Predict the 3D structure of the following.
Amino acid sequence: MGSRGNWSVCGVGTANPCDRVGSGLHFQSPPAGGCPPTVLFAHSCFDSTIHKTMKNICFRLLLLVACCGFWGPGPAADADEGMWLFSSLPREYLASEHGFRPDQAWADHLMRASVRFNVGGSASFVSSNGLVLTNHHVGSDTISKLSNENNDYFANGFLARTQAEELETPDLELNQLVDIDDVTEKVNAAVKPGMSPAEALAARRAVIADIEAEASQRTGNRCDVVTLYGGGRYNLYQYKKYTDVRLVWAPEADAAFFGGDADNFEYPRYCLDACLFRVYEDGKPAQIDHFLEWEDAGPQEGELVFVSGNPGSTSRIYTTAALQYERDVRMPDVLDFIRRREILLQQYALGGPEYKRQANDELLGFQNSRKAYMGMLAGLQDPAFIQMKLDEEKALMDQIRNNSELAGYADAFQQVAEVQQRRAELRKESFTLNTRVYNLARTLVRLATEDQKPNSERLPEFRDSNRESLMQQVLSEAPIYLELERVKLADLMARTLEIRGGECPLCQAMLDGKSPLARADEIISATRIADAGFRKQLVDGGPNTIQACDDPMIKLAMTLDAEERRLREANEELDEIERQAYGKIAEVLFAIHGTSVYPDATFTLRLAFGAVKGYEEAGEQIPAFTTMGGAFDHEERHGKQDPWQLPKSWHDAQSNMMSNTPYNFVCTADIIGGNSGSPVVNRQGKLVGLIFDGNIQSLTSDFFYSEKQARATSVHAGAISHALRAIYNAGHIADQLGK
Amino acid sequence: MGSRGNWSVCGVGTANPCDRVGSGLHFQSPPAGGCPPTVLFAHSCFDSTIHKTMKNICFRLLLLVACCGFWGPGPAADADEGMWLFSSLPREYLASEHGFRPDQAWADHLMRASVRFNVGGSASFVSSNGLVLTNHHVGSDTISKLSNENNDYFANGFLARTQAEELETPDLELNQLVDIDDVTEKVNAAVKPGMSPAEALAARRAVIADIEAEASQRTGNRCDVVTLYGGGRYNLYQYKKYTDVRLVWAPEADAAFFGGDADNFEYPRYCLDACLFRVYEDGKPAQIDHFLEWEDAGPQEGELVFVSGNPGSTSRIYTTAALQYERDVRMPDVLDFIRRREILLQQYALGGPEYKRQANDELLGFQNSRKAYMGMLAGLQDPAFIQMKLDEEKALMDQIRNNSELAGYADAFQQVAEVQQRRAELRKESFTLNTRVYNLARTLVRLATEDQKPNSERLPEFRDSNRESLMQQVLSEAPIYLELERVKLADLMARTLEIRGGECPLCQAMLDGKSPLARADEIISATRIADAGFRKQLVDGGPNTIQACDDPMIKLAMTLDAEERRLREANEELDEIERQAYGKIAEVLFAIHGTSVYPDATFTLRLAFGAVKGYEEAGEQIPAFTTMGGAFDHEERHGKQDPWQLPKSWHDAQSNMMSNTPYNFVCTADIIGGNSGSPVVNRQGKLVGLIFDGNIQSLTSDFFYSEKQARATSVHAGAISHALRAIYNAGHIADQLGK
């Protein structure tokens, strides 16, 4: 099997340090590569699953450390590790260990039945007429956008009684992976020896743009070149795009997030974290060839199951220096930002019910991120973990020294270490005004500039191959809450001052002599950016219109653009150096272990697998399954206090329900943020569950996999169909599942 | 009148950067100088008054800036500025502007009727038999300590129906100021020319210890030397101490904090933020000669009133460099810490009702601090404010240049600027494990060492003159919630790693090879520090017992003591340099303006004054008074949702109440954190109200005073007595007020 320890390999880095908030361990994940890094940040980088008291987190993580010593997975104990490429499945291992050899047809069918939500998350086709199943917390951003003061579908749920009632979503793009090509040689050929990092980056970017443009033109599909093994391989992923997506069914938030922030990352769980969309083509439900059959019976205890989804980002290849940077610099910073935003959103919600509704989805996402980051940081702060990485690194260095063919690779670790130092310096200048209105203004300003350049020289998000996705975002009619934008912008301006100091000339230009509060108010009161028609005028008008535009948000974006580009370029240069260094480390791993190692997660389709099984915690056996009846007991145990209040629909239906219907279950599959909404299938390729979370013990999966206690948590297929029939009077939807 | 602008003068700096969290603008304030800086930190540095949504804060501060331009108080418009020493009242000004010349008897009576709560806050004697009136949020720390799982007096209120039922408090010390002496010459004589800052600090500390010891021995009272005008003057304050203090009455938190975090710092308000204690001597109610008479009728609109209390800390003398440090370094850091602790306490409270009870008082304090700091930082981030300070500084420098007698003082500004740079560097190493158990362990460890030294060489909190107060804290039987201590300690250890980096040898020694979570659990599970009897053994045993002690918390404190002392000394050296520099600046101000300037606040007794009057906000006139009936309307307007739910007692009593009884009122007196609980008296010296808050517009009072919109908020005297009679069936208490 080759390496199954922490030396699997990865993709690293993004432009804005703040964007990386989203690239950690959420079960929902950052948007796909084609989108501008921050346009989607506000509503996409945070997972919206929801957790137990700090006390319990502490206690459990403590046990994890105490039980596992350190977490280098043993060769047998943790055998089901891996987020495998569909183009390189571990067939031998599955055959020898599990007696199951998936053939190409099995894999192709599952790949094409899998769907990526570009706002961050996974999904699957579950009917021939276009039904798409994902998590409520993956759909919640869209469900919130469809809601308003009078119809809060997020809180109260939604059901289309007929196809005509299915709600068109404003800016959702779903991707179906249809083909994978290896383009490593073509990409690497463009980078000539002796090029500086900036030159190498430009050359690599140009050749990738050309490859994508050519493929996109040839196939009519979305084509993304994906960096794998941190720069060891480049693959061209071809996606069929669906942009007419409609909401079919969503349960109440109280059912989807039952137990709220307190139960998040906990197990046992009782959540109906599911919703259904439908893709349309030419105004009619799309005909889907590859959809998953539905297995109401779900999986059995101990059964091998597969998870097909888009894990967002892992850091298993990270060197010790990179992990130290994460531990001492980036994660503490990110956590400060998360807590800051949490408090801001809590305060905003005090304004009244409508304020609360506007803030809610984002607040849940930040709560989730905070819990996830705290788990990750707690893992990194255990001295034993860093010692384990140091020991591994030393062993690898010994192998490099003893192998003359690897001589050129010895400096890779030092290069990564130097990048961390430079990243820490760059953080001291890095700022973001990441709000929807500012991001839109910046995109418009940059669009005018980038469109003057040849396609291959543009920033990636402005390439022709991404134009349709970009325009969907720029011209989205999704509601913008200006009052919320205002408090966020004021806070981000204040934060920019805190980072760069009040005497910084750029800050002074940004503020124009006013306080952050006054300046944000001035701009938000006057800007027309929230009007999609105005944005359309600016897109159509081109550079001259932008130059002449006196909208204060456009002017602000113009004021900051040069510095934001400089910081982005500086970050991307560091990314490039790291990419080359990790590329070398990957080659070392290939040389030692062969190529049967899986790359770190990159928000592209992967296959994970594992057994449905419980685990031991504090001397107690946690069972693999919960039941729907157990949800009522759980509510009772918590005195029916918020967040343990099942919705009225559940209480009304309680007598109709089969209380022993399995509800949630756990398995050992190796997943991470971005896997939210992934279908769980059995050997027959039938859908038996829906991934929605991991337990507390899985929070360190960013850095290492262990199957001792870490578990992926799913909604049982039978619970979804039973809820549709017995609770939501949606038999007409349940009848379509798997057909 | 001399200077009435921002060039009033102050005391600066404390040892641990984190301690300074408490020294900002709260209406409750840090403990008095005699206590170890961090022993009391957890429960004393944060105010527990409670505010409206961020939206409204932003909007209002915005208006403040827009309306005032910058805030240099005009000579006439903001004439009631000042926190005056009782030994140097602005009699001429009061006579000429308000037609009232307070005589010595008036001042002495008010001074002696005023009481300081050493946990942070002000109060007054209001009966001959020892009743002490303060805010609920000043008493809440003690009320929480008296509560337990079965009797939550904090939430549900308390009433002693007889004197026998009055509840003994575990560790409350009240101070009554009885005398003030100027000892400036004696202190300054000890500091010889050519001494290094460290030598000067030691010499100053020694002479202060001698002065305090001599006075304490001579009088039997608590004697503190107080640094005024940032080092321009030293006064010896003599306090009579009361350590047998009993709880008489407290309303429900829902009445005291009606409107919660949302209404905090807002006006109009509807809060019964009051409670009553009684001081005892020899087991009997103390006979009090100087107590305030009670004026049920309260003040009239426009009437001149006086506030006698202990404002904690202001920064009006700060140079631009010091303000820039506050803006760019300290306040952002403090706010990150506040939000971090807020989230931690929120999470802890999710554990259930008892967890919530344990966390509640501290959580309210941190919410209050966050709102206050955000207001202050927003003020500093207005470019116009810093510009105003720069202009003032330039004008002062011009006066120095044109006055040969002031030639030696020109470098003071540069010295302050250099200190800020060094403070910023020092922050990068500064950590705290500020929990009750850790602080107690550290105090025990240090006590063993310090007691080996001559009195005058000890750290101030270990001087003989402070021994009784120290022992009251060290041997307090107040409950310690070990689960809460555990999560705080784990978080502070994690934060120490974040600050100093995971590879720091001290961090590694602190963790002993474990993660912060595991290490905190190990220590908290095994330590006996929570047992007051064990602490008594360690105090009695002396150095050998401490050295031989294998309690893990004691060992942890010993591990960290050297570095904590080093950081404290480094900070105190900077304090000394600043003290000398501000001393020079004060001399400049005295030379230019005479000595009729008031010193910055130092948590010692001051007199402020102003008129009862409303203000204009957003074109609307905000009336000075609210009524008790208005509280019911306010509840109705907010849909009776938390935090706008009046307690059952109020609803039961509604028909008995006189709804037009004045409830809260505002006046223009110049107050700051620490003034919470201050009596408001009229020209006759009768109590007409009880300070409990300031409005949003007053949040920048740390740096400047303005009477345009900034207001101090009080409970009306008549509302307190009416509530006692009509709501709380406490006529027997009401009958004693003012008698």
In short: Chain A touches chain B through 58 residues (CB under 8 Å). The radius of gyration of chain A is 24 Å.
